[in-house]
C-alpha cells in the first residue's frame, strides 16, 4: 500500500503523526468498451465545445454555475488560497458512543499508520479508545475537501471512517407508507420467531461474491477454449539490443583485439594441449626404461 496523505492527530496537547492509507479496494472485474463490429477500443477525448479541439488536462480549469446561470471559473491557484487546502491536522472534536452514529453517515475507510520513530502516542490513543469504548469524532481536510470523520480501533490499528455531512443524506417520505395499518401481534410474533431461527453471529467470511466468481469462470473458460470471442495477445517480441550496449560491446571487442588477447587465444589453447601431452609422454618412457634397468642388474 502507498500512503495518500500525511498529517497528525491532535489529541488534546498530544500530537500523533500518521500516514493515511485506503483501507478497502474494489474486487470487481474491469471491462473496456469496444466497438461491436470490429472490437476496436473506444476512447474518449476532452473536446472544447467552443473550438472543437482536444484539450490537455493541464489546460483545464473548473467552473461553477449558480442557480441563476452565472458562471465562475476557478484555477488551481484559487483553490490553493483556501485555508482548508493547507491543513494537515486531524483534531479530535469529542468522543461519542459509537451507537449514536447512524451507519448511513459512514462513507470511506482509511488505515492510519504511525509516522514517527517512537509510536508511543499512537499506541496510547488506540488503547484509550479501546478502554473507553467510544469513537473519536474528528475534522480534517483530504484532497481539498473538508470532512468529518470517526476514529476507532480495529485489530490494534487506528481506522478513520469519513462521515457524510447531515445535509448530504437525503430526506425520504414515501406516500405508500402513510396510513398503513399496524401489524397484528400474532404477525409480529411469527416474524420474530422467523428472525430467531435465522439469527447467528456475523462472520463475513461465510459470504462470497458469486457473480464475480462466475464471471471470472466464464472468462477463463472462454480463454481456454479459444472461442471466437477471444483475441490472443501478440507474442512478445525479443527486445532489441540497445544501441549503447551494441556500441559498448563493439568497443570492448576492439580493445581486446588491440591488446592482442584475441590473437593469442589459439596459441594459449595449443600451449594447454602441449602441456597435457607432455604429462602423458614421461609415463610411456618410464615403461620402456624399466626392462633396461633390470638387464643392467643381471649383468
Describe the structure.
The protein is extended. It contains 6 helices and 9 strands. Residues 263-271 and 282-299 have low confidence and may be disordered. The termini are far apart. With 299 residues, it is an alpha+beta fold.
- Radius of gyration using CA atoms only: 39 Å
Read across the widest sheet, the strand sequence of neighbours is 1-2-6-9-8-7-5
DSSP helical segment count: 6
First CA to last CA: what distance? 96 Å
Structural class: alpha+beta
* Helix-strand sequence: EEEEHEEHEEEHHHH
Q: What is the arithmetic mean of pLDDT?
A: 82
Strand content: 15-25%
Please provide the count of β strands. Answer: 9
Overall outline: extended
Parts with pLDDT < 50 across at least 5 consecutive residues: 263-271, 282-299
Which percent range fits the helix content? 25-40%
**Biggest sheet features:** 7 strands, mixed, barrel
Keywords, separated by commas or semicolons:
alpha+beta, 6 helices, two-stranded antiparallel sheet, 299 residues, single chain, 22% strand, seven-stranded mixed beta barrel
Q: What's the layout of helices and strands?
A:
Elements: E1 5-11, E2 14-22, E3 62-65, E4 71-74, H1 76-80, E5 89-96, E6 106-114, H2 120-132, E7 135-142, E8 145-154, E9 157-163, H3 185-197, H4 210-225, H5 243-259, H6 265-298
Parallel strand pairs: 1-5
Antiparallel strand pairs: 1-2, 2-6, 3-4, 5-7, 6-9, 7-8, 8-9
What's this entry about, in short?
With 299 residues, this protein is an alpha+beta fold.
